[in-house]
Amino acid sequence: MKNIDSKNHLRGESIYLDDIPILAGTLFGVAFDSPVAHGEIKKLDLTAAIQSEGVVRIFTAKDIPGENQIGGIIPDEPLIADHEVHFCGMPVAFVVAESDELARMAIRKIKVEISPLPVITDPREAQKKGHLIVQPRTFKIGEPENAFKDCVHVFEGKADSNGQEHLYIETQGAYTLPMENGAIKIYSSTQGPTAVQRACSKVLGLPMHMLEVDVTRLGGGFGGKEDQANTWAALCALATYHLKRPVKYSLHRMEDMRMTGKRHPYSSDYKIGLDKDLKILAYEATFYQNAGAAADLSPAVMERTLFHCTNSYFIPNVKATAYSCRTNLPPNTAFRGFGGPQGMFVIESAIAHAADELGINASEIQKRNLIRNGDEFPYGQIAVSEANECWEKAEKIFDLQKMRNEVAQFNSKNQLYKKGIALMPVAFGISFTKTLMNQARALVHVYTDGSVNVSTGAVEMGQGVNTKILQVAAQIFSIDPSMIRVNSTNTFRIANTSPSAASATADLNGRATQIACEAILNRLKEVAAMELNTTVDSISVNNQCVFVKGEKSSLDWRQLIMAAYLRRVSLSEHGHYATPEISFDAKKEKGHPFAYHVYGSAIITVTIDCLRGTYEFDSVNVVHDFGASMNVIIDRGQVEGGIVQGIGWMTMEEVIYDKDGRLRSNALSTYKVPDVYSVPKEINIDFLQTNVDNLAIFRSKAVGEPPLMYGIGAFFALREAMKAFNPNAKSTFESPMTPERVLMTLHSDELIINN
Ligand code: MOS
């Protein structure tokens, strides 16, 4: 089935935040944000700005009726700076005016005096000074200290990965409306409607039932709107609270880039030990996460780094420690993969390092150590593994040997162009690592004409979740998809939603929809049995018709619905789903946190221009474990998009803050993302369809995040190509591997590994 949004998207008829019709009397807000990364506010002069044309009011921390606090996991993040600023981009005041332009003009007239305090941008420096967001955590299995003694080969080094700008096409924003009796309706571009509701409740000191958050869809989220949509919603709600007027704030791109956090940069140390047969016996890693100035989701992101620190390998002796380090950058946040990619980059670096030193191809080590059924992850969960199936199938169907031969031949014939090839296996755990978040609800109404309306906690952000939910309802009821509509996500219809995140949205909300639809269907079958004078067991509904013992009856779907209504049988149901079988004991750091894992293997080839340092990806060939895909078109789109986004992170996307904590890559002229010219020339995706019983919706495995990590292979393919040009020019494990870095590496004969 095609994505139900595709036609509207193509025609420009889809409703995003900025497409909501503006009510008469609407005011427009703009945040005035700190130009300094750390300091004490000495004076805030608003006189000229207040007198500026069209300005209605300027809000500061003093105007907050509730708590000046939007921190989700840890209450360490003021909505508006009070005495101190902690990062460039931190809101200091909120100007509300008759138009967006007038508000922006007034912003320039605000004068602030900030006496600077020391600025820290480096996570290792923050850790040394004891600036941690939470206590460090350590995952351990086996006896790594002893195991290193049994290793024939031991290598140590450092691997650093940089941040990544989410660059959702739709920037952040909110539109708030005053309702009766002090209630506020909040349109928000958020992955977490309940997170917005909770934050606004705290800031305004209003109970949650006064705050209706409504989300039709987002123009992309990628994690950036899991927690960071709260700020704009709370600012607008604050203004609506005081002014009793609708208030809208839709961020400009440069404001969005400057004021929001990104993927966490990590600096990490590794130590890897192998036996003579290339089995990895022991692994140690220390991760320094650059959390930025507030916790945001950093502790949870850090946890997932630990969960994925051994990627899809079985290593019997592991010790991994992670520090969440407080710096003076905007609070870094969720980004597709949620810390997993950062953990995987380090183990892949360690393996590449070992392969270099041993003079072998990294894939020999990778393949030898893939996790098998029954092996234990460092956190105690036993693997139900497709890792070997994916790898072996990829080798076979894409003819790895032939690809290698072609690369070798090309490299022997060409001096200034070199090709490289790398494999990237992935294992990604599906479920929120915080067990309690793995719950969802769906509200299903069947109307008397037989049409169906479904509401869930899922937020459509381009990933196609609404299409999948519609498919679930259509399949359970066995009615035509055109009879079903999926509603906006609304906190008055569905309460206490978990954010649309962790790749689990279709699983959780799809299951809740299934439960609600099945409950209605069971009641309908009872009605049908009464209508047709038979037993409930003999009734089935198929293709909008009622069947008795497989024989088509005179009753169709519409008649059945009307019969139920006339008998006063409920045609509505609220379904609740909580993932079974999962648990985690954070004291022991052991448990069974994931409903299941998604596996896959990618083969990536690249050609570099050794004079210029530029490169093109020739192909990405993937065998990906979809379980039993319920929507091949959507799932293929997710894999393709994830791969390109992952390659962007590893290669061309470079977030640069200067030592004063100012974002230098603050526009699309200085921050490069993959465009149509830089995507791989070919992406081939093979669907490994497995029928293993899992906890996915209809056994169709989660697909949002795992494919991003295939992009890590791009970094290692580039390394291989560089080695083909200059065997002595070993690169450091620092991403992104931009063309500039490739060029400098190619022509430096220094062995600078491990520095
Ligand atoms: Mo996603 S990175 O779990 O919002």
Question: Which key phrases capture this entry?
Answer:
eight-stranded mixed β-sheet, six-stranded mixed β-sheet, 755 residues, single chain, binds dioxothiomolybdenum(VI) ion, alpha+beta, 28% helix, disordered C terminus, globular
Largest sheet report: 8 strands, mixed
Q: Given the helix and strand composition, which structural class is it?
A: alpha+beta
Number of strands: 30
Query: Which of globular, elongated, flat, extended, rod-shaped describes the shape?
Result: globular
What is the straight-line distance between the termini? 52 Å
**Within the largest sheet, what's the order of strands?**
3-5-1-12-9-10-11-20
**Average pLDDT, to the nearest integer?**
97
- Report the total helices: 19
The poorly predicted ranges are: 751-755
Strand content: 25-35%
- Please give the radius of gyration in angstroms: 27 Å
The distinct bound ligands, ions and cofactors come out as:
dioxothiomolybdenum(VI) ion
Helix content, binned percent: 25-40%
Describe this structure in words.
By secondary structure, the chain is of the alpha+beta class. The protein contains 19 helices and 30 strands. The chain has an eight-stranded mixed β-sheet with strand order 3-5-1-12-9-10-11-20, with helices on both faces. Strands 7-15-14-13-8-30 form a six-stranded mixed β-sheet. Helix 9 packs parallel to helix 10 and helix 10 (340-358) crosses helix 11. Residues 751-755 have low confidence and may be disordered. The relative contact order is 0.12. The structure holds dioxothiomolybdenum(VI) ion. Dioxothiomolybdenum(VI) ion (MOS) binds at residues 191, 223, 226, 334-336, 338, 501-502.
